[in-house]
């Protein structure tokens, strides 16, 4: 393997790994903030107990999300230095602003939230976790703006003298139409993930025998909160995803064709639910199709024309050259790996729909004060948090793989983006070290999560009145 | 002033903030097995930085992001060139960050001992390697006409670079010990102060040697003044530490680190990454920079939001200003509870 392959594997592995934790962080920070606010407003003991219980799970998850995020920022320079040189003028700005606006906010106010139970007045303490959530939103906005620029470059000129893309309209980058579709889609998926996490954990605690009967109403509250958030989030994901599909067809028609393995332009085009094809994806042997659905998904009209891979490939060759050999273009068929795009697209949608359906089921079985029992529900509960988590991963794999061979669509191929000075040995060292470490950390993280989930919520303890930094001989209410 | 110069200055400020702030929490991490005699004392040390270390670490993330945005060529050459040291720093920061959060999550000795090791290793490695990296920046590294680093890993380990690493290591140890002296009470406070002074003397010797060497290599009049002031601040800090004035002593190491880093950046300017092969191939603030449009946008964002960040981060230090000691450590780690107070040690 050369440095390029290794760097691509590393990007895929550590980015997907990082994004297992990010949506839980974003979704759960909002849910924990909501629960604490409910406690501050009503004084209801169950809200505080749930705040602390899910807060603890949130922190276990947050810690690993943060440390794996550091690698994300540094690897652009380490593995993709030619990319960094080419787009730094544009791509670096959202990254730097993300650090200044979002990371400081998250880390500072999370510290205040964790250690501030006996220091800050209650409303201020609740405000801290809301600010953490605001930080996660800002972070998502800026990093998605950077990614959207790679999908659909706007607000720049290509400078022939410096050989790089240069920013000329920052506002255009911040309001890129791809970004305006991607941000709501990703965000609602994050809420869905947080909701499904809460739903799964709380259902397990509600249904299992060991749970004290007095605690069941509390867990039922969490089940219903999680279910409502998952369902509403799921609705948002569907609506924004539909909109995003049309934008994608507009700016990256090849990605839509690849998602569908649509080789020849069709009008109207059918959506295939399931296809068995040859291994390279070039021919289908068996397919289940819904007529006209793809036309609607791609264009908003049931008769719309959807361009096929073959026609687009010819068009791209005309636009970008057969083999220009110049700095930022390579020869190639301009086509992503079809089976990957086809299946990740379907898995993303299918798992998301399953999660929303499960949420609806739990709303039904907990209706009008009911507290269900049964092993089947525990099994569903255990699987539930995984559904949106996996859907997120497949969604990102689809988005990034579907853009290939481009790193920046129409401007720079991935092959040209890699660091020329990094040896395969260095890249492999990094790939192996990070993958092994991440593997070990995953085992530790899941072990800790399960440990605290099994323990359930701690008994209610009235938080002390705040001292705001005054010296006190009392033990700290929270200490590592 | 040119915007490129402004951004060189802002990146210097970010590194100063990073070394002054995370410097002491690295020091606390490294001193965990040295200063603490039992688990409760280790927890006292960890809790002095518990609410603060994460915010401190963000400074380096913003420094990295700002370098990417303001000097893309510098970011690309530096991070791909110093590949393996940076990988080691990343691995160290990962295990260290998790250790603080996860250590208290299980009440088992073996679990805690392993995370303690992670904290120590995670603090030693960056403390050493940041110094090595900065020394290499100042001395110059093999960079070719295409702005690519063409050296290997071992090119980064010259005697000068290793002295740089030892200097940051000793400075952070001193800084951390004095921070512990400032933030704790009881027996541990006195031990930390004594250790801070003793390590501080070694740090002062290393720092003077390193800064003098740097001044000889690439220094200017401005850097000489800053280096001398830095040395004076360090010595003054150690002197007041012996008299038990921990606040002033900590301020001394804080100012010493700030002035030393400011001096290093002054000595570096207008290069950002000099080439040891040919001065014409050096990366400078102008040939490595982003466009003036990008720098203008970034300047506005920095001007508007930096004061807000400084205000709330400063406020955090105020909220957690009280000293802690073994009697403040609850028996049940990582949870809110009201346990019986422990006897005052």
Helix content estimate of chain B: over 70%
Number of helices of chain A: 15
Overall geometric form of chain A:
globular
Radius of gyration from the alpha-carbon trace of chain B, in angstroms: 21 Å
Count the E strands of chain A: 6
Provide mean pLDDT of chain A, rounded.
Answer: 88
Query: Which class of chain B in CATH terms?
Result: Mainly Alpha
Flag low-confidence runs of chain A: 323-331
List how many beta strands of chain B DSSP finds. 2
Quaternary organisation of the protein chains: heterodimer
Total count of domains of chain B: 1
InterPro entries (chain B): Cyt-d_oxidase_su2 (IPR003317)
Family (chain B): Belongs to the cytochrome ubiquinol oxidase subunit 2 family.
GO molecular function, one term (chain B): oxidoreductase activity, acting on diphenols and related substances as donors, oxygen as acceptor
Subcellular location (chain B): Cell membrane
Describe this structure in words.
The complex is a heterodimer of chains A (480) and B (345). Chain A has helices at residues 3-42, 45-79, 81-115, 122-151, 170-174, 177-207, 216-251, 253-260, 293-299, 309-320, 338-365, 375-383, 386-401, 414-417, 424-455; strands at 156-159, 164-167, 271-277, 284-290, 406-408, 412-413. Chain A is mostly helical. Chain A has a domain at 213-411. In chain A, a hairpin with a 3-residue loop joins strand 5 (406-408) and strand 6 (412-413). Chain A is globular and about 75 Å long. The two termini of chain A are 44 Å apart. With 345 residues, chain B is an all-alpha fold. Chain B has one domain (3-321): Formate dehydrogenase/DMSO reductase fold (Up-down Bundle). Chain B has eleven helices and two strands. In chain B, strands 1-2 form a two-stranded antiparallel sheet. The model of chain B is unreliable at 335-345 (pLDDT under 50). At the A-B interface, helix 2, helix 3, strand 2 and helix 15 of A face helix 2, helix 3, helix 4, helix 5 and helix 11 of B.
